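A student in our group prepared the protein record below, which I am reviewing. Here is the record exactly as it was handed to me.
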Amino acid sequence: ERIAADEGKTFGALLLDNIPVALIVLLPFMALILKGLYPLSRRYFVEHLLFFVHFHAFFFLILTLQILFSRIASVTFIPEPISVLVAVAASFYIPVYLYKAMRQVYGQGHFLTITKYVALSVAYTLGVSFTMLGVVLIALFSV
C-alpha cells in the first residue's frame, strides 16, 4: 500500500540508493571466487580484490561512455543505427577485456583461462542476482 501511495517513487529511490552498496559488497565475494580459482597463484586476497575493483572501474567507464555517446548522438546528426552499433560493440568488449585481463594478470594458457572465465562469469551472475535481490528486499522493508 505504501509503495502504491506514491506510485513507487520512494521504492525506486531506495533501490537506486542501495545499488552502489550492493556492488561494493559484491567485490569481496568475487575476490574470494578468484582466490578459489587461483589457489596456487601465491597472490593475496587483496590482490584479487584489486583486480576486481579494476575490472568494475573499466565496466562502469564503458557504461558511462555508452550513455554519454547515446545522449550526444541523440542531439547531433549521428544516425541511430550507428549509435546502437557503438553501444553493442562496447558491450561485447567488456567480456573480452575480462578474459584478456585474466590472461595478463594470472598468466595461464587459453584453455585454463577460458575454464576459469566461465566459472567466474557464472559466479558473477549469481552474485549480482543475489545482491540485487538483497537490494530489492532491503528497499521493500525500508518503505
In short: The first helix runs from residue 2 to 5. The two ends are 10 Å apart (CA to CA). Residues 3 and 9 are 8 Å apart (CA to CA). The chain has a mean pLDDT of 89.
